[in-house]
Amino acid sequence: MDNRQAIGSWLSGPRQAAEDMGADFGYRGEQLGLPESGPGAIAPVGRRLGAIAVDWGLCMLIAYGLFAQGDSQAAGNWALGVFLVLQVLTVGTIGSTPGKRLFGLRVVGEDGGRISFVRAIVRSVLLCLAIPALIWDRDGRGLHDRIGRAVQVRI
């Protein structure tokens, strides 16, 4: 092996080095049987971040207006509870929060059907803890989605 190739693979990262050795990673969602693009494909990160920002803003408004009584610090604490309830009720019933609907996303089970209410609760609690949502797999699913056996897809 030429030294320039070794330096190039080191600079390119481990994925590029594995691809150079013949590993085929495919596209995100391929292992789950999802299409590469279009409806039913894995939701892009930007849309998911936009959806959660809309949902959090909505929860802050609700918490500030109904529970916080003018205390902005208390509103943040109440907003987390409102966010949990919003996630459980909307994802557990229709598969989509207001933010997800706005951005054209939906949460489905790994089999493509609706997730059960229990899995929606587990997923939502883990999402509220934040750390599981920041640990992603090769398909771009957070740990909260993997444990809840869910996938966020485009509508």
Structural description of this entry:
With 155 residues, this protein is mainly alpha-helical. The protein has helices spanning 3-12, 14-20, 45-66, 72-93, 98-102, 117-129, 131-134, 143-147; strands at 105-109, 150-154.
Features:
8 helices; 6% strand; single chain; mainly alpha; two-stranded antiparallel sheet
Helix-strand blueprint:
Elements lengths: L2 H10 L1 H7 L24 H22 L5 H22 L4 H5 L2 E5 L7 H13 L1 H4 L8 H5 L2 E5 L1
Antiparallel strand pairs: 1-2
Query: How can the largest sheet be summarized?
Result: 2 strands, antiparallel
Number of helices: 8
Order of neighbouring strands in the sheet with most strands? 1-2
Number of strands: 2
H and E order = HHHHHEHHHE
Strand fraction: 5-15%
Mean of all residue-level pLDDT scores: 89
Which residues form runs of ≥5 with pLDDT under 50? none
Report the end-to-end length measured between terminal Cα atoms.
47 Å
Shape: elongated
Helical fraction equals: 55-70%
Kindly provide the radius of gyration, computed on alpha-carbon positions and rounded to a whole number of angstroms. 19 Å
Coarse structural class: mainly alpha
